[in-house]
Amino acid sequence: MIKVGIIGASGYTGAELVRILVRHPAAEVAVLTSRSYAGKEMAEVFPHLTGFSDRVLETFDVEKVAAECDVVFTALPHGHAVPVARAVLERGKRLIDLGADFRFRDAAVYEAWYRVVHEAPALLQEAVYGLPEFYRERLRGASLVANPGCYPTATLLALVPLLRAGVIAPEGLIVDAKSGVSGAGRGLDLRTHYAEVNENVQAYNVGVHRHTPEIEQELAVAAGKDVRVSFTPHLVPQTRGILATVYANLKAPFSTGELLEVYRYFYQGEPFIQVLPEGVFPQTKSVAGSNCAHLGAVADPRTGRAVLLSAIDNLVKGASGQAVQNMNLLFGLPETTGLDFPGIFP
Amino acid sequence: MIKVGIIGASGYTGAELVRILVRHPAAEVAVLTSRSYAGKEMAEVFPHLTGFSDRVLETFDVEKVAAECDVVFTALPHGHAVPVARAVLERGKRLIDLGADFRFRDAAVYEAWYRVVHEAPALLQEAVYGLPEFYRERLRGASLVANPGCYPTATLLALVPLLRAGVIAPEGLIVDAKSGVSGAGRGLDLRTHYAEVNENVQAYNVGVHRHTPEIEQELAVAAGKDVRVSFTPHLVPQTRGILATVYANLKAPFSTGELLEVYRYFYQGEPFIQVLPEGVFPQTKSVAGSNCAHLGAVADPRTGRAVLLSAIDNLVKGASGQAVQNMNLLFGLPETTGLDFPGIFP
Amino acid sequence: MIKVGIIGASGYTGAELVRILVRHPAAEVAVLTSRSYAGKEMAEVFPHLTGFSDRVLETFDVEKVAAECDVVFTALPHGHAVPVARAVLERGKRLIDLGADFRFRDAAVYEAWYRVVHEAPALLQEAVYGLPEFYRERLRGASLVANPGCYPTATLLALVPLLRAGVIAPEGLIVDAKSGVSGAGRGLDLRTHYAEVNENVQAYNVGVHRHTPEIEQELAVAAGKDVRVSFTPHLVPQTRGILATVYANLKAPFSTGELLEVYRYFYQGEPFIQVLPEGVFPQTKSVAGSNCAHLGAVADPRTGRAVLLSAIDNLVKGASGQAVQNMNLLFGLPETTGLDFPGIFP
Amino acid sequence: MIKVGIIGASGYTGAELVRILVRHPAAEVAVLTSRSYAGKEMAEVFPHLTGFSDRVLETFDVEKVAAECDVVFTALPHGHAVPVARAVLERGKRLIDLGADFRFRDAAVYEAWYRVVHEAPALLQEAVYGLPEFYRERLRGASLVANPGCYPTATLLALVPLLRAGVIAPEGLIVDAKSGVSGAGRGLDLRTHYAEVNENVQAYNVGVHRHTPEIEQELAVAAGKDVRVSFTPHLVPQTRGILATVYANLKAPFSTGELLEVYRYFYQGEPFIQVLPEGVFPQTKSVAGSNCAHLGAVADPRTGRAVLLSAIDNLVKGASGQAVQNMNLLFGLPETTGLDFPGIFP
Fold it and tell me: Most Cβ neighbours (<10 Å): which of A155, C190, C253, D179?
């Protein structure tokens, strides 16, 4: 059994890791830490885990975690994963960070968008960007995984195949994303206060969201050149789910069928990527609770543009599910281990 | 592998059975039937099953179903399960009905509340009421299971232990239940039209809901005498979940702790029943997607009354999960097989 | 024009007062105070008021408020309205308190449930309980109004007429209430964090909610004797609305029609009380945004019990609308002035 | 008093017209017709109107309507308003159509997108497109008003000023719109069934929605040349509100402040258009229930693009409120008559 430690277990991604891991046949939760809830049982903080987890949240102790765990997940505000990673890696264990600290190859980009100095730029070279559909081979041998952001996951799954295939132009890309509120975490804020969010849709961080450079970094890899996107995140009144609606200029008058064909070819054999039939559009509800991504596309001959649709559960494929998928890769397990369940509908 | 047939698979309970069974290690879906969607793939009707089920919905053919299946689940409007049951049982197979056709020991009660003639009253003697926490032994040897209604499940789990223990009176019971909208099924109706239900809470079928006699039948067993309840169902603007708030007169000045103690004693070892600590109240969100029931209680010395709280997912413990739990019992499997997963939170 | 001051204007009831008063033909908002947002424009804090209010929030200055206003509304945590009231009344102006400070005739009851010493018990004799349907005449001459709680308003409208008519017993009353989340105010709390409340129904403060003694005080007046109720509030995933489902023992086998007849007789001519036809049940959505209450009833001969249903908008008839209704009474205006608009549906 | 007839009053836009008109000081509802509910009281079909409307729904009788009304609102499926309009106009009365029958100057465009033959193309020349902010003068003298679609209203308010000012290019426009479910009307459909829509966001009619040519027609007027837009509507889990997120290429490196300045200049004096301060983004909740539109903008120097945000209530400014605004213009009333109320928040 793989012994797992979760640092920052009292947030939503931490709880979601536990939800997934309690039925993982080859892993077990060994240590859960929390600054705010140390000393409480996980099931007291999250009653849905009553009967499934009897672990008690602890304060973080790097020696204990490194001693008792084979792999550590960090679910922390940016900047806080660096010291944990250093300590864990030094002790020969592996680390999967669900935050932003290791997602950028270029520390300067991180520093420009996150406005902090990166304290271990050398680790950036070691880290592998944890999108298994694109980096599977490198992930198998990795010690340090940068689990992607939720918006980048949804966006990249839609764009990378078409960019690589050369059917869309890397110029003029627009990503209009709609996210459930759980993506904002469990911290209290008027912006996530029920009465303010319910029956409301709104954009936020227009043009300045920190997932923008992450998207652009990976699109540049796919396009072989620098890419700039307009990225606009929106909050919609639901708990889970991201729908990314992506607009791209077609390089030639491809049909909807041809776009879907590119997807199907690129993702054949992928257990978690479902390309929907022509005329069927992804909806977040169909992937809620699962590690799947649903993809759809429309080629619009009137405008010469492709409209791409990508739906994921922000807490699963957009965070904790993908992290477990990465863990499976790191430990040589089949990627679907512990993740082979459909979502909840309705 | 147990071969399973689902008759009426294109409704929500049918889809939920498939969601659960695709990861059941000892069962497999062999036949899915639907009147409205025959010929379509299940995953076309329910996209969340894309990649998890490749079965095609068929029209119902009793010979085929009986030949290919070990157990048949019926998820049909009342009255329609009787002929299926007869045919399936005659062929030596087992049947679990998710509707009301076999829930009553007395055909006259069924006929009075459902306003149809029962066409096979003899089968009522054969049927076992499928609440494993109360009828486990009888279920092990059963061929015909009457899977309980969602409201009765939530209500009985709260009331039966306290009635049996004699701490509450069988007179003056009041059940005020709040249900998510999925309980009303997938059939179109202005009452379940989004814009009419959202931001709305309302009572319906006050005093005349058909789950009333079902609740009363089982309470009478527990109390050893006839019982009458005031039962008021409400629709709340959410998809899944039932919370039953039950009011009962205490027979003596018991404390909250003593009520919870009765629950804990009664349900010890039960894998799906969680008695929450004093001061913690069940919430539907904590059981969404799981087969668990959460129970809480408050003894109010001011009024001499107990307030009991019971939360389940109406589609899981209130329908399809409980049906699979019953199937496990019928086939000698551990009851938790295929059901040992926590709910989804948030 | 009546000059109005609102103390604590940056909460939901404060904003709702402004929403109503900006179209009141005989009143105008003169002073808005807020501790947290002083110096900001009201429309900055509440963008829905953009173009309707150009007032700036100020810190509270009793001299200024008393000098510039004819009537003061206090929307403050309990205990905080007492000094404001004293100062305002001393200066010969009127005060309508939307909190609990003046709702109890007996200071000891207040002190027992709110666990603070009442600092001006003498004012309790002066205060009139602001339910115009029951205390209209006394309100006309009042200087100090205790605006009722949201749950008591919904509950009392359903119970008082039947108690006074003697058709239900004062013993054995049960109030099961469901409230939208706005009732919890704008203060941040995990209990009102979107992802925790959405898709969730739960009870809270079972048996100990502070609206209980307020309900009991007024029921005692109607019954002519002490009354004890079981009161259980629930949070449902919607922003506005309270539905109270009330259970009462019938003193004789009255019919549903007779119960409704009592309501119709009692409330004839009342502009804000709508008694729905037999078989139609109140729903919160039908009163959202309006000052109306919808009432329904079912007599259940099986149990000898009446089930009473009462729906209001917690922020309007349950708070700010009723406060303006009271203001109209105080100033000799028609009660519907500024309040004669239907709710928003859907 | 202006006598108003509403043809198709049992849908959401019909009910919303009644909600607005019952407090309109210079108009009164004279006739309400409905095919499905004729003979029922309006308040029976829509309980929120109990106490506000005692009118009975009738079957449509053109002579009666024309005789008793000064102006007729048609809220009918496309194609059905043409015969009503003809009959009403012949009798010298005015007509405001809330559907698509008179929105296009070119019958061929209508016929291509709506796939029916237009039966009175001559009326298209007579009809005035009812966006008062753009066509106020022509509306004052009009007899036939084509009330705009909800998506076009939100979109055009954002785009027209910037196109006319020449700060954005007419090429490359993308409109990503999110709508509440009430926009789909009261007709039953699995797509608007509560359990399918709740906790779900999805695109629909991608590239083929019928509001596309309406948007393009009006943008062409503003741009002085043909315009093609990518228009993608989405359904979000809320009842009311549209947020249009619009992407446009800046013709020069304008700042956010300059974009907002164009809006403020263009809309100065407009009672229903609120341009929000820099950094504040429109949200649907702030305009729910009101006839206001909130506008915001961000100039993104990284991409050379403007992101424009426009929020309206689809049933008010997007339908019935705008229709009443048009009626006011037709009858020489101040435009805000009966419409000068803020939205409901929270």
Answer: A155
